[in-house]
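Mods, move this if it's the wrong board.
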Amino acid sequence: MRWIIALAPLALAACGEQSAEEKEAERKAAVAEVEANQKPPTEQLTLDPIRYPEIEKYDLFGAGCSFTPDGQGLGTVVLANPDKGYFIRDGELQALAADMGSAELPYLARRKYDGLAYSFTLDLDDGSGEQSGYETTDYRGRLAIRDGADNILYRAEGLVQCGA
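Not the wrong board. Structure tokens:
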């Protein structure tokens, strides 16, 4: 009789044990939670306008396309040239290589540009083009800038002007 009383706590403890499958599922859930919380918050990207003084300073002349977001007046924030794309972040010029496998835009600009820390895509509505000057055409378009983890840091619609 005494042995029944001595073994009762052990029997109750055995009932509460998890199976190996339950332990593994619990471990995987804990690992997934830790990994999900290790992702840093996405950067808030603010673009500086590219004006004539910056174009002169960095020698950004040439044919291609520029992007000006709606509501920013004449504040162009991206230049897309045949071989490189540019934007200014915190006063520092960011130069990205043209993705030669991406779609070609007017004046040999490209749809996608890639850099070490950022990439951007410039999409334009082909049917919306209106000639605005002797060698320039204005389009409606969209700009998306992403970080190395493919998070969208900046997205806007606006005017895409292509020309020489």
